[in-house]
Write a structure and sequence with these properties.
With 333 residues, this protein is an alpha/beta fold. The protein folds into two domains: 8-127 and 281-296, Rossmann fold (3-Layer(aba) Sandwich), CATH 3.40.50; 130-275 and 308-325, 2-Layer Sandwich (Dihydrodipicolinate Reductase, domain 2). It contains ten helices and 15 strands. Helix 5 runs antiparallel to helix 10 (301-320) and helix 6 (133-143) crosses helix 8 (178-195). The longest helix has 20 residues, at 301-320.
């Protein structure tokens, strides 16, 4: 395994759409060296290796995990495949950065954490929104008491899409539900992260608007947090008047956050456009910094279990049409 000032050798597992963003970000970081690309499509694995300057390519993740120059992996696979590849990587002593959602079940997410902790390797989830200026500022201002104690929050991601961005997006067995796990893994996570309190009661409702998605494509997740704050997350892929924002109401004021645009508090507007180096690049930087410093990273697997519990509770609530609490669904320990 790499030590000292040498760059960490990394393999990117899965050469689909999101892998391009990971590979571009890796090229920006001197702390990382791209050792290998991995994909079951042999031509794609080779093409990505040649395009992004990998030393070599593999056709299975098990082959890549045997490579002694691979210190870490970036998992860019379909959602349902994250867990087993992460467990396999941990068992081989490799550090892990996985795309969101961490997994498609709480049980699988807990397996990932247990495997990583047992081998003493780092497990981080690529929760991009935590690394954007707008969200970092919001968390700082809430912590500083700018709006007093938070009491209510509404998070909206209302978009419009008539077709899947990847071939498996409308297959719930693989995606876990494109809206709940594809979008919700971002939006539930950032709502909980802003407010720094875990969910303890969850009620979710959903409806099928466009049958193409084979699952709920309109979802509302209502959460009561441990500190009493009430949070509602609204998700849609059928809204032509797109909205991607948060409203957070406290005891001394409120704020509106337009994702990667601005924050409004009273009459004051703070511009927070997306800048180079934010998001995924910043997440990878945090990953490598945590490895060098021997510390837990932001969005560690254990931390993201809070998000996975809320998503699982929402999934059960949608199915059973009732409120889910920590009595019905045990909280990760």
């Amino acid at each position: 395994m790499t030590e000292g000032p040498n760059p960490f050798g990394i393999a990117v597992i899965g050469c689909g759409n999101i892998a391009r963003s990971h590979l571009n970000a890796i090229q920006q970081l001197e702390e990382l060296r791209l050792v290998a690309t991995v994909d079951i499509d042999k031509e794609r694995a080779k093409r990505y290796a040649e395009t992004y300057g990998a030393d070599r390519y593999y056709f299975s993740h098990t082959e890549a995990l045997e490579d002694p120059e691979v210190d870490a992996v970036s998992i860019c696979l379909p959602h349902s495949l994250h867990a087993q590849v992460a467990v396999d990587a941990a068992q081989k002593g490799k550090h892990i950065l996985t795309e969101k959602p961490m997994a498609t079940s709480l049980e699988d997410a807990e397996r990932m954490v247990q495997a990583a902790e047992m081998r003493g390797v780092t497990l981080m989830v690529e929760q991009t929104l935590r690394f954007r200026e707008c969200n970092v500022k919001v968390k700082e201002m809430i912590r500083e008491g700018v709006i007093g104690e938070p009491r209510r929050a509404i998070r909206r991601r209302l978009g419009y899409s008539r077709s899947a961005p990847v071939t498996w997006a409308n297959n719930p067995e693989i995606a876990g539900g494109w809206v709940l796990y594809g979008f919700g893994s971002h939006e539930v996570d950032i709502a909980l992260w802003h407010l720094d309190s875990p969910a303890r009661r969850v009620y979710a409702q959903g409806t099928v608007n466009n049958p193409y998605w084979n699952d709920y494509d309109e979802v509302s997740v209502h959460m009561e947090l441990a500190d009493g704050t009430i949070v509602t997350v609204l998700l849609s892929v059928n809204c032509q008047q797109r909205s991607w924002d948060s409203i957070i109401i406290g005891t001394k004021g409120s704020m509106t956050v337009r994702e990667a645009k601005d924050i409004t508090i009273g009459d004051r507007v703070i511009s927070t456009p997306l800048k180079p180096g934010e998001g995924l690049a910043a997440a990878l930087k945090e990953f490598t910094s945590a490895l060098k410093e021997g510390r837990e990273p932001e969005a560690s697997g254990r931390d993201v279990l809070k998000t996975m519990w809320a998503l699982e509770a929402a999934k059960f609530s949608l199915k059973e049409k009732k409120v889910i609490t920590t009595r019905e669904l045990g909280y990760p320990t």
